[in-house]
Design a protein that fits this description.
Keywords: Membrane, Transmembrane, Transmembrane helix. The chain crosses the membrane at residues 12-28, 40-62, 74-91, 111-133, 145-164, 170-192. This is Spermidine synthase. The chain has 205 residues and is mainly α. The chain has a single domain, classed as Growth Hormone, Chain: A. It contains seven helices and no strands. Helix 1 crosses helix 5 (143-172), helix 1 (2-36) runs antiparallel to helix 6 (175-193) and helix 3 runs antiparallel to helix 6. The radius of gyration is 17 Å and the shape is elongated. The protein starts with a helix and ends with a helix.
Length: 205
């Protein structure tokens, strides 16, 4: 029973982080477009920056997981992701004003804006998966099954984040409220993941 509960928790974690990554990506163009306009450069920059940030997060998360891993560490990374997603709403006005007044080419403006707003949150989101994989694998004979289960739930979360955000959230909430919602979801997930649902050890981790 405890094993099933732990497995469900890890699957929920990768599902939610997958959802947040894609939802954050979908709303990214809405955040940048007032300063740069709607163009292929925005989507190119957002996709490239987020993929690069996730890759770096996977690398750093894997190195961290090799040292040691527990739910406290996993919760901490989710909490940091929540904080930096929230910071996006705080920083965006200043960054958009700078980009609007800058004479730089729109390609570079889109790239700089994407990097400034979306890189750090996605690095921390990327760090979650390797730690979840390490916690999931308790028996080497079932490594393939355990890892595929998390890949499936992460992908399902990404698909859900794409459709729910594109079809509903953007229309009903707007970009700023979506960012607040995603941050809140991650804060709740960090609390749920933390040992005995105690946030204090995470904050001072």
């Amino acid at each position: 029973m405890l094993v099933k509960k732990a497995s469900f928790k890890l699957e929920l974690i990768v599902f939610v982080t997958g959802f947040v990554v894609m939802s954050f990506e979908m709303v990214g163009s809405r955040i940048l477009s007032p300063a740069i306009g709607s163009s292929i450069y925005i989507w190119t920059s957002i996709i490239g920056v987020i993929l690069g940030s996730l890759s770096l997060g996977y690398f750093l998360g894997g190195r961290s997981a090799d040292k040691y891993v527990d739910l406290k560490k996993l919760s901490a990374f989710i909490l940091y992701a929540a904080i930096f997603v929230l910071v996006t709403n705080i920083l965006k006005e200043g960054i958009l004003v700078y980009l609007s007044n800058s004479p730089m080419d729109s390609k570079f403006a889109a790239l700089i804006g994407s990097f400034a707003l979306f890189s750090i949150p996605n690095i921390f989101l990327g760090m979650v998966s390797p730690l979840a994989f390490k916690l999931k694998i308790t028996d080497l004979s079932t490594t393939g099954t355990a890892s595929s289960s998390l890949f499936i739930w992460s992908t399902v979360g990404s698909i859900a984040g794409t459709f729910v955000t594109g079809f509903y959230l953007i229309s009903y909430l707007g970009s700023a409220n979506i960012v607040y919602l995603l941050s809140l979801v991650l804060f709740i997930l960090a609390f749920y993941t933390s040992p005995k649902n105690n946030m204090l050890p995470i904050v001072f981790y």
